[in-house]
Structure formats: C-alpha cells, structure tokens
Amino acid sequence: MNGYAAQALDVIWLLPLLGALIAWTFGPRLRAAAGGICSAVVGLAFAGTLAELVFVSRWTGMHWGFHQSLVTWVPGFTLGLQLDPLSLIWSLIITGVGFLIHVYSIGYLAGDRSIARFFAYMNFFVFAMLTLVLSDNFVGLLVGWGLVGLASYFLIGYYIDRPSAVAAARKAFVINVFGDVGMMFAIVVVFALFGSVSYTDVFAVAHDLPSPVLALICLGLFTACAAKSAQVPLHTWLPDAMEGPTPVSALIHAATMVTAGVYLIARCAPLWSSSPEAQELVGVVGAITALCGALLGIVQWDIKRILAYSTMSQIGYMIMAVGVGAYDAGVLHFFTHAFFKALLFLAAGLIIHELANEQDIRKMGGLRKRMPLAFWAITSGVLAICGIPLFSGFYSKDAVIYGMLLHGHPILFAIGVLTAGLTAFYMFRMWFIVFFGSDRTEHGEETHASSWTMRIPVALLIGPTVVAGYLGIAGSASPWSRFLAPVFDGARPFEVSTPLNETAVSSLVLIFVACGILAAYLRYGSARATSRDTLRLMREAEGIPLFFRRAFYVDDFIRVLIVRPAQIFGAFLSRFIDPRFIDGLVHDVAWFAGVLGFEVRAMQNGQVRGYAFTLAVGVVAFIAYFTSLGGVR
Amino acid sequence: MIVPPLYYIALSAVLFFIGIAGVLTRRNPLIMLMAIELMFNAANLALITFSRVWLNNVGHIFAFLVVTVAAAEAAIALAIVVVVFRQAPNVDVDQIAELKG
Amino acid sequence: MITFATLSIILVASAVFAIAAKSPVHSVVGLLVNFMALAVLYLSLSAEFIAFIQILVYSGAILILFVFVIALLSSGIGPFNVGPDRLPKLLIPGTILSALALGLVIRMLANTSFTPEPRIGIALGPIGAANVFGSIGDFGRALFTLNLLPFEVTAFILLVAVIGVVLVTAGESHAMPPMKIHRKARKREAIVKEHH
Description:
Shape of chain B: elongated
Radius of gyration of chain B: 17 Å
Radius of gyration of chain C: 23 Å
Shape of chain C: globular
Oligomer: heterotrimer
Number of strands of chain B: 0
Helix content of chain B: over 70%
C-alpha cells in the first residue's frame, strides 16, 4: 500500500507545477479562469495531502514516513521525496492555507490584467515550497530553497509598473541569494565530510563530528535561515516585501516561505542538538529578532508593515524555540501562526481592498461596524497572536516561552515574556486604531465590496485560528508531540529542572500581555484617546524618534558597510578592469578578425591567376614538406 | 628498356612545371588552357612510365580517362571563353573578376 | 637513349615555345609538336594504344578545337587583343615558383631508389604484335572487364560536358543578362587610379 502513497506523493508534488505551466502557457487565453484552475490544483494537492495523513498513519501507525526515489543522480546519489510528520505538517499548511489564499486571490485580484501570471507564480511557489519540504536530501532542499526565493521575487515584484515593488523584489532576492550561498557552503562541507547529501546518512553520523565542523555547517545553514526567515540582520527585505499583493504577503511572507528557516532547523535537529554553540547562536538571534520585530511593530502606521514586523517577531519566537531545542513548540507555533497570520493578512486585505488600497491605519478608524467580518477575523487573529487563553497562540507561544526555560535559557525566556507584552501592545494598538475611534477614511465613495471568494476563506480561517493550538495541550504528552516524536526523538536535548511550572509561566506571560493591552487601550482605545484622534495620531507620528523610524538603522548600516563598498568595487571594475581586460580582450579579438578579414579579402580579388598562384604556393609547400621530411625515402 | 624510368619521370616533372608556369604567367585564356593541357600530358607521361615499369596496364586505363576528362574540360572551357568573348571585346582573365570578394 | 634525349629536347623546347608564344596560333603549333613527340615517347614505352589516342584526341580533336575557337574569336573583330596586365608582378614569382618546385621534385627523384616488381604473366613484345603489353587487345581486355564502370562513368562525364557546353553557349543569349564586364572593369580601373 505504501506504493500508492508514494505515487500519490509524486502527484501532489507535481500538481502545482502543472497548474503553473498551464497558467503560464495559456495565461492570455485563460485570463480570469486561471484563478479557478490554479486554486483547484492546489485544492487537489491539499486533498491528497490530507489523504496521505489519514491513510498512511492508519497503515503504518505512529512511526511512519516513507521515501520515494525520483532520480539517481550519480550512481549512489538518489534524490527523492520523503513524507514524515514534519514535512507533512508543512505540506498541509502550504496546500491548505495556500488553497484558501488562492481562492481569496480570485476575488482580490479580480479585474487585474495579468491575473493568470499571478496565479502561475502562486502555483509555482506552492510547487517550490513542496519541493523544499518534501525533499529527502540537501540538494533537493537547496533547489526548493532557491525556487521559493525566485517565486517570492516574482510575487513581490508582481506590480511590475511600480518601481518600489521592483526594488523590493530585487532586495528580497539579493538577500535570499546571500542565504542560498550560505546553504550551498554548508552542503559542500556536508558532502565533503559524509560523501552523501541524504538526510538519513548525514544525521546518522552527525554526533561523531568534531564540534567546530558541526558549528560551521550549522552556521552556513543558519545564514540561509536568517535570510529566508528574516532574522536580524537580514530581515530588512521582509517589510519591503509588503509591496506585493496582500495574498502574497499572507501566503509567502507570513504563513509559509518565511518559516522555511524553522523547517530547516527542525529538519536538521540532529545537527543542532549536537552543537551547543549553534543552539546558542540561533536562540540569541531568534530572541533579538523577536524583540526587534515587536519594537518596530509599535511605530508602524502601514497595516501591512505592522503585520510584517509581527511576522518577523513571531518567526523570531519559532527560530528561538527550534534553536534551543524546543522543536515541538517551535513547529507548533509555526502551525498556529500560519493560520492566524494568514487570517490577519487576509482580513487586512479585505480592509485594504474595500478602502481602495489604503494601507495607512491613521486613515481607517471606526471600521468595526462597517466591516464586521474583518473586525471579527482580526479580533480573533489578534487574540491568537497575543496568546489569550482558548486561542491557538496561547498554547504555542507559551510552549515556546516555557521551552526556553526548560532548556536552560533564562535570558531568552525573559526576552520572550517581554516580547509577548510588546506584541499585545502593538497588535491591540492596531486593533484600536483601525476599528475604534472616529472614521478617518478618505475614500468614502470609491469602495469595493468584497466578493464571496474573499469572505469565505477569511471566515474559514477563523476556525483553526482558535482551535489549532489545542493539539499542543499537555506539553510532551500532547497528540502534537506524539505525532512529531519519530522526527525529534533522536535529537532531544537535555532538559533542566525549572523553578516555574507551566501554569506559572503562563500566568506571568498573561500579566505582561494584560499590561500591553491595557497600555494600548489607554493610549488608543479609551474615550479620551479616541476624541480628536486624527490630530493625536498625527502628532504621535511626528514624535517617533528617528532611531525607530529608520528601523534601527539596519538598512543604513547595510548600505554603508556592504552596498557602498560593493558599488565602489563595481565602479572600480567597470572603470578600470572591464574596459582594459574584458572589453579589451573582446575588442582585440574583433580587431584581429577585422584585420585578418581585410587581408584575406585582398586575396579574394577575383583574379584567376592569383588563385592559381596561391594554389601553386600550396603545392610547392606540400612538395617541400614531402621531399624534406620524407614522404618518399 | 635502356633509359632509366626516372628520366621519364623527370621529363614529366619538367613538362608539368612548364605548364604551371604557363598558367601563372599568361593572361590569354587560350594559352592558359593549353598550358593546362600540357600539365595533363605530363601527368599522363608519368602514368604510362610507371605502367611500363610495373608491366601493369592500369596506368594506361587511367591515362585514357585523363584524356577523356581533358577533352571534356577543353570543350567546356573553350565554350566559356567564347561566351565571355561575346560579352567583351578583349579576352583577359584578369578582367573576369566577377567573383571578387 | 638517343631517341629519348632527342624527344626530351623537342618536348621541352616545344612546351616552352607554346607557353611563351605571343600569338595563340603559335602556341597551338608548339603544342602540336609537343603532343606528337609525346606520342612517340609513349610508343617507346610500349603504350601503343595510348599513343594513338594521344594523336587522335589531343592533336586531332582538342587542338583543332583550339584553332577553331581562335578563328572564331578573331573573325570580324580584328586581331585578338588582350587587356592590360593586372598582375604583372606574377611573371617572375610564377617562374621562380615553378622552378623551385621543379628543383624540389628533381632532388626528390635523385634521392629515390626505385625497385619495381613487374607483373608476372604478360610479355613485352614489339610494337604491333598481338597480345603483348600495351597492345590494343591487352588494353581492351583491361578496359572492358575490370574497369568497365570507370569507362561508363567516362561516357557520363562526356555527356554532361556536352549538355554543359550547349547550355553555356546557347542558353546565355536568352536566359542570362549580359555581364558588362568591360564597363565594370573600367570603373574599377578608375577607382584604382584614384587610390594611387
């Protein structure tokens, strides 16, 4: 029976590519129909993934998972697919949330001229992401890694006539390629050491490696993670990536692609668990990212940028968790985050769509009555992201924060708690500003009503936003941990005894969250704050320190330290090296050919006797050769 | 055969290179053609000499074919000369340079 | 040996005369002498059939063709004239080149030791005897048995030549536009003069 499942996996993997090819090839003719076709394709893939979950777990019990060889590259290097609990979770999110977002996009982009191109990119992205998570070796991982970067580049720059979108796409691509290089480096080291790129071979012997080498591999892989998952200091592309259409932000820059780093670390858990240095590094970077994202989220006015920084912050949590060894918690947070962040983005998309592409929260306000669906959706998303009990984020985020303590990182724990409070503050700030207070919209007349294709996915996402976290109730005895046990059992790092139990940690977090909500209410939600709020918000916007407004000067640092030197180096090359050596060589060759042609042309004078003379010279040379070198002896 | 065969070959070579010199130095197409006939004959002489030395008449056959080809070549070449001469009052191969590169 | 020496002198002298003569008619006469002497030389090499072919085809057909063309071209238009020499420098190099090549070949021949292995089973005999080497019977047997295919190919080549000649001479006046060699040549001369 496993054979059917394996073949079905091939189909699931290739379906989105098929959809992309169809949309690409017949795009101009399909036009709006492309949306339906591509959504159906992803829906089919989702149904297939669900079937895999149901049937494969029934046949093989808890310790399940299988490989499917695709091609034998060089003899002995078989590239293939694998389905195990970890890749299954990611596949479910990619195809499931992906399907809803596809359906949503039909409405969101209705009337767009190049809608078929959009859906081709989206399907291509789903294919690339599936390649990434289903691959059973590092090479396939790298291929998927690069392809999702490409798909992200396409989709951020989807509005090709908008210079800022194109610039953002380029920035994202360059930073991602920087990460790809790190990953390629790690893979080369892995191959040099193990002579294999397959996960099973590598992880089987990872424990025996000397720790500096292991740390080097992890560092290379983490460079890729940091670039793809927007970790400090490679995070600057993510806020800019909001130039893409909102469904793209929901699918790629919130739910799936940016969590590829989490997947990578979880997948390489045996490597990380054997390398305390790498764990330390990843945990610290994750914590810094979580904190920075939250701090920067406070000072944003663009609704999508707020969500982008919150994404960055939440991915910081996940990276922190998988970094220190709390793999179950990290992956669970990915799982819940995919739902509530997609929901937040899609609901924000409803607002943006209805207000004719207005993204500034200062120009929203009082939308609670006007858009009840968006209000309830964002409310549930905000409650989930803040970790309010009974909402999914509560279970996953508390598991992450408790995991810090459990694996002996009290400082990271403190940062996690603090960030939770900040998260509550900036999310509720957005919530109050958008839905309460006076109506500050400027586009009262030219609103677009949202179609049902947009409303239904939003409504459907509210469900998992609430309940997805229930899987993780009861810590290591939860169904979640038991499901993931085959993946992480070999790589569970030690746990330390903690001074606080889970309830105490949750209470502590909730206190911080309550403080955050209270602060947000006092500043943005109370009756005193909502009176004359237009003026107040404007004044506040002016009062934000430059340090925050420039996002901690990270972009400026990168510009000064990397971009400028690179530009100067490039200018040097183009000024001195290129014209003299590269162009010079080309010109010399051309000049030589020209001279040669000119000389030879003189011989082609049409004079028969001239030709005869040339021929005779050849004959004489021939005879001379034979008589002197001895053709005849 | 009292005369050494190499003498015949040497004679053939002399005639051949006289023919080459004729082709290279003359501009009258008729004389050039005649020089080419001379070269054909020089080659034939060598063939027949070797044929005699080896007592093998394949050389004769080959010489016969050469004669035939020479006849065909002369016929076509002279036809071309006649055609060209109809177009231009003087016949000079140096002026027939239509294929100039 | 005396025959060979005499014939050699005649051959070289007539060949040089043929290529050096001012008038094509003189060349034809030189060539006629050359071909006749060559036929005699062939006889001395026991190649009696080729000797007759030489006289028939070369002296009888090809040279007559040359004479005919000369007569055709000279009739009515005046003397056969040749335009200006465009490659005057070629005279000396051409001669030197030929002499050089000849020297090389002669040197090679002088260094060659030549040990033929004659075919067994064919006799040499006096000119005109039947079934000796080079006789018509010997040649005919060789031509029509072993070498029949080349012979047929020869026939085909001649056919193609005939068709080609007909096309070149008869078709041009209708099908091809006149080449206008003269005008172009003059223009080119003018350009060359400008350059110098």
